């Protein structure tokens, strides 16, 4: 079974307007209320690929209920731990550029955190645990390290898609897949990454410290996959970008869905990129048919440093 976990879900209140003026009254006529948060996006896309999964995390209040109901209607199983706090609403403004206002995550009690630990302990060998989205610093890195350690002991595929100091600390544990974007990879090492040689160099460092698969996403430029045996690069397909929110999460879903079926990292990488781009080219998250249409356009090549250093 695949479990996703979103510590801080959201309703993504997504609005489109042709001209956004900060500091002025802006009226919108195209609005959407998507259930959001990175793990939840991974769950929704997996379901669209026909892959059963359960969304874990913390949710509460009217927004929490909305998210749960929406997911159930889409056929995504949920097993959220209830919070007394109302789950956040994140505002996504789509105009000439994309502006996002993300609220803070919930404050969680020791009992609530223990309830999540128990769910991870109850997972079976070979299961997947996808921890995605922001991880409040207040929880403390030891908690997430403990979850990672349980996954290691039980041979659960641990997938991590987060950013900030917490990413750094959890990466001291063995991780099956980590998907930083180029900027997050730079932040992890306190450097500014501006070229492919550096992307490769720092992804390689993560592999050397124990991560099995490192996928560095680079928005419209595509992505790079580095493992101990291979380094691959692929450009993103061409298309009209509508909404990139959830593109990275869709890449993660595509990689997992394909890898779980084929055990082939190269194939999974290609399917992941097609999934990320298919989401970027539509308002909500991608559908399987969108991804299949883009697959032919994606060429995966071995990455060699000499390709960019001359
Ligand atoms: N402008 C774009 N054109 C085509 N494909 C895109 C574009 N932006 C993103 N993608 C696709 O989605 C993948 C992930 O994108 P990105 O690097 O923006 O992830 P991210 O920063 O984690 O996104 P998010 O946090 O919004 O989910 C890319 O590797 C690419 O395949
Ligand atoms: O505040 P976080 O947890 O870092 O990110 C949350 C979020 O921006 O990420 C998803 C897209 O990846 C959205 O659905 C959601 O609003």
TrEMBL record:
Protein's recorded name: Tagatose-6-phosphate kinase
Annotated Gene Ontology cellular components are: cytosol
What residues does the Carbohydrate kinase PfkB domain cover?
10-283
Q: Which GO terms describe its molecular function?
A: 1-phosphofructokinase activity; ATP binding; tagatose-6-phosphate kinase activity
Read off the PANTHER family from this record: 1-PHOSPHOFRUCTOKINASE (PTHR46566:SF1), 1-PHOSPHOFRUCTOKINASE-RELATED (PTHR46566)
Pathway(s) annotated for this protein in UniProt: Carbohydrate metabolism; D-tagatose 6-phosphate degradation; D-glyceraldehyde 3-phosphate and glycerone phosphate from D-tagatose 6-phosphate: step 1/2
**Among its keywords, does the record have Transferase?**
yes
Enzyme category, top tier: transferase
Q: Which reaction does it catalyse?
A: beta-D-fructose 1-phosphate + ATP = beta-D-fructose 1,6-bisphosphate + ADP + H(+); D-tagatofuranose 6-phosphate + ATP = D-tagatofuranose 1,6-bisphosphate + ADP + H(+)
Q: What is its EC number?
A: 2.7.1.144
Q: Which family does it belong to?
A: Belongs to the carbohydrate kinase PfkB family. LacC subfamily.
Transmembrane ranges? none
